[in-house]
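Example with several molecule types.
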Amino acid sequence: MIDTGAAPQRAAPLFLRQHGDGPVKLNDMFLGLLLVAAAIGIWLSAQNFSRLPNQAYGSETMPLVLSGLAMALGVFLIGRSILAGDALPRAMRPEWAGNPGALGALLVTLALIAGYIALSGRVGFVPVAVGLVLILMLVMQVRWWVALPMSIVATLVVQQAFARLLLVPLPRSGFLGFLW
Amino acid sequence: MPVILEALGLVFQPSVLLVILASAAFGMFVGSIPGLTATMATALLVPITFFMDPVPAIAAIVTATAMAIFAGDIPGALLRMPGTPASAAYVEDAYAMTRKGRAEEALGAALVFSAIGGIFGTIVLMTASPILAEVALKFSSFEYFWLVVLGLSCAVFVSPGKVSRGLISLLIGLFAATVGIDNPAGEPRYTFGNVELLAGVQFIPAMIGLFAVSEVLRAVVSRSNKSFKGGGDRSGIFRNQWRNLRRYPVQVLRGSALGTAIGALPGAGADIAAWISYAVSKRFSRQKEKFGTGHVEGLVEAGASNNGAVSGAWIPALVFGIPGDSITAIVIGVLYIKGINPGPMVFINDPQLIYAVFVVFLLANIIMLPLGWVAIKAAGTMLSVPRNVLMPIILLFCIVGSFAINNTVFGVVLMLIFGVLGFLMDENDIPIAPAILGLVLGPMLEQNFITSMIKADGSFAAFFERPIAAGLGLFTIAIWSIPLIAWAIRRAKR
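Resulting structure tokens for the full complex:
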């Protein structure tokens, strides 16, 4: 059950490697260092939390326990990497990152969700949701004459099911208020 | 005997049967929508039950809950969006089966063995409630602490890939669970002044983000326009289940029994039960290597355990009036409104009502089969939709489901954060499921750990002084130490 940490194939340091080097992008040393950094961060933040009156335990206890566990695991991974002769933190670029279209599509998707968060309260659910589904379908190379009706129908079905049937107060659109 | 006949008379009335059918359809609908939960289905039914007599009111809730919990497996198997943390235990196997064109078989197994587990739990509920409830009430914070640690350990060890990466995932989940004001000293932790974070990280938006949004992001970067089905899914919903039942009878029985027993523990419930059952199934399987790759065995055992636990949660609720989970807490409220006070006296004062509840449980688990068949067939059509059309619509469901938990856009913010986190975890072969269980069980772990430490005055020995706690503790330590010792021996030999 325990992974034995067989020596990984040699890779160039930090994000210099090109794609296609296997599924694991960060090596054990990299993850170990991240865990040690996280453990220190959690330990420092836990100093601000208090204990229960007259007790040795309180809000700080769990973060301190987690900090200890993260430190132990980080040190274990670092040690294992060194024993395996792989002492440098390495990251491999995934195959899709070499394709500008895929990277762009990923960024557009994240921007669309962020756009929904920013705009739905002001513009309303329906127009923002139609825009989100439509743009994402176009990004995913669906033809516009399929994407447009699909985005409208999908949005209306979701709006009716959630807002009307399940009484979820989705943000209303001024000129589409009759749908609620 | 007259009591049972009276109970049957109360249930087998056209109006009650109609309520059962309608609430079953409602539960199936709510449960199959990603992001909506069985608890939400129950809560939505409460205002309607005000206008009903006690039996149809309870029947509506019991039926909707049982359906919604099974229906949570549908988006889990088809879209890798588990409806509940319990479904997350076997979602990788179910989704892998879908990718292999065996979605109907996966969902059929979830349906049939959920029904079997539910019926098993109901029979235990009918026959052994008082005894089991007595045992459950003997559990103190020490036993609960070990039970939670055991569940979390199972999540790490059954996850595909390296144990160290499973542990990283668990630490992420446990850390996310420390956010908020719900901690021993009641002070804001990692909230950064955000009022919404005072209540902690909601696990539904986190779960939608980690599982579903990360899957959408993967589809976006792969830009695939293929559907899942390939040559079409002809595996059949019920076709292989008789064979599965004959092949895995011990697993079905073990899952149902373990699920019912864990479900009977107040606060433990289906989440821990499904994970422990899945781990037990893998541990004793002759085909351990197939787990996580689309193998039905774990799905059979954990599915039975999941619904067994749902029935088991009613044991402390009915016998002592102590809710086993959020759903039974709502139901106890409804019972009080109807003038029925759950507890030992209800078995003496209103035995016909209690037996009517038992009959409803059995009916709910039986009609789950035909209704589940319809739901699976209806949902299965989405698999023929090309992924580049389906994924944007799924993202819309994700957003609305995350919003609907607290009716705030902050749920969508959480979904986005955890979606990116899940995508990065996937890319680095860090399993997602332990993070979910860490997030769900983190508060319970902290509460029972702190309570136990205060009780024990800081002595770890106290964690092993009570017999059940000692047994659970030693078992958990063995789970961790045996593979470590085996690894050390192997390394020493090299």
